[in-house]
Amino acid sequence: MREIVNHLWGVRRDYDRTSQRLVMPRNMNSLIVEFSSPAKADLLLDCKLIDDNREWGRYYDVRYEKGCLVISYRKQNDNRDDNTVCRGEYKLFVAVAGDFGFSPAKNWVEQNYPYDESRKSPPYSRWVFNAGALAGQKFVVSAALTRQKAVAEAKKILNASAGILRREADYAAEVTRVMRVMPDRVKMAYQCACNALDSLSVGDEGLYAGIPWFYQFWVRDEVISVNALRMIGRERLAKNILLRHLSALGSKELPMAYGSHSLRAADGPGWLAVRYLQHNDLFSSREKSSAVRHLRNAFNIIKCRMKNGLVTNAPLETWMDTSVDSKDTREGARIEIQALALALAKGLGEKVFCRTLEQRVRETFWNGSYLYDGANDSTIRPNVFIAAYAYPELLSRAQWEKCFDTVLPRLWLPWGGLSSIDTSHELFTDHYTGQDNVSYHRGDSWFWLNNLAALVLYRINAEKYKRIIEGIVEASSHEILELGAIGHHAELSSARALSSHGCVSQAWSSAMFIELCNELF
Question: 254: which DSSP letter?
Fold first, then answer.
């Protein structure tokens, strides 16, 4: 392979004697494969539910029928597997349509996954099924839960592929259209971020938090991304996200952080209030009345969670939702939770509540130099930037500058990011440790928060913090364009050096980069 070109709507791979184009059309379960001249390609298959890594009981059947190569896959329970994670038996079908020859192999080959091994996320290798070799110039691979749907989609796309490719290119051009004058490198990263964010959307239904592991609709990730969704023209999706999460506030509990997950999001109501107030022009009068009623329910829940005049949260309910050995769970009163509660109260016109909580927060968190991370925790963390973003009225401009002047030397990483904890703290870990969470919120630098922090610094004093802002923009641009999954913004980086780690395409990372660029330029 000599070169890979990502056109955003498709990828071209150049070899010595031919080139290959790969396109996955939006809202379809298919892959279009085209070569510049006839070529051979192995058809390797690993059919499974996304988290089903069971090895045994996997059965493939390969047949040529109705002008298509049809592969049926059947997963059966097997006592040699651990069936506690994924129990069910299921079937699915893959159809390959096109003018091609096929040489069957029907054997198993081992594939290795060094990135999974580096983050201690087994399995590190897996046996996949080699159906055989395809020889031709163009074919379509489609998947479905029934044989008929797989065959029908493969044939339909094959016959209409020229028009589909034009539509895909036009759509990508529209989503990535730049309305601002930006430096060329930032512009390219911005266009990639727009495409990456859009690619995580599920129609107008919702937005996945990230791929490959976070294929759920998470309240904080979706809601934080709403601004950027509107910026790329996805207004209906933005509105649907807000409506769905607002309606969930009708219960007597905080919203779930991860949909069906047991963790709750203490910051969910506040983020909803921030975004609803920014985008209530999307709502009808009736919808506004309903939204305010739901936010009022959330406000009452928050008031019930107050202790000593501050809003409290249970362990692991903030965005820093992991722990190691049950330590550093951030229970109690946390700075960004206070700011988000104030944003919610302000949106509801609760002036007395705001004055009272503001005073209590300043008395408890502000030491004259910076804001504590918790009511009884003087640790320096970048959550002060979330507080400034959500409720800038908490401190005066001069006080915010004093705060940032104090915390930045303790958090700033020379490559252009912020550590998730004071670099001199005993919990600080300077390298990404993977799935064990040792470094996750204890050193790892999160791109969404870096981009948010640059936005806050720009609003407070753009000239004073110019070097920091430019450093973050360059680091995020470099990660999008040259590291990890090319054209996508990853979850985080090691503190030691700029790197691409965690989830390879993270919604709120791209979203906050889009929002940052729109304001800076």
Answer: P
Distance (Å, whole) CA 45 – CA 60: 9
CB atoms within 10 A of CB 48: 17
- Identify which of 461, 336, 337, 365 has the alpha carbon closest to the alpha carbon of residue 405: 461
Q: For residue 65, what are the β-bridge partners? A: 68
Q: How far apart are alpha carbons 457 and 468 in whole angstroms?
A: 8
pTM: 0.95
Task: Tell me how far apart the alpha carbons of residues 326 and 319 are, in angstroms, rounded to a whole number.
Answer: 16
Residue linked to tokens 């031709």: 136
Rg (CA), the chain: 25
**Could you give the CA distance from residue 517 to residue 521 in angstroms, rounded to a whole number?**
6
Q: How confident is the model at residue 256 (pLDDT cuts 50, 70, 90)?
A: confident
- pLDDT, one tens digit per residue, over 51-80 is 899 999 999 999 998 889 999 999 999 999
Distance CA 137, CA 37 (A): 6
Token look-up 């979706």 returns 222
**Closest to 417 measured CA to CA, from 488, 487, 500, 475:** 475
Q: How many CB atoms lie within 10 A of CB 271?
A: 26
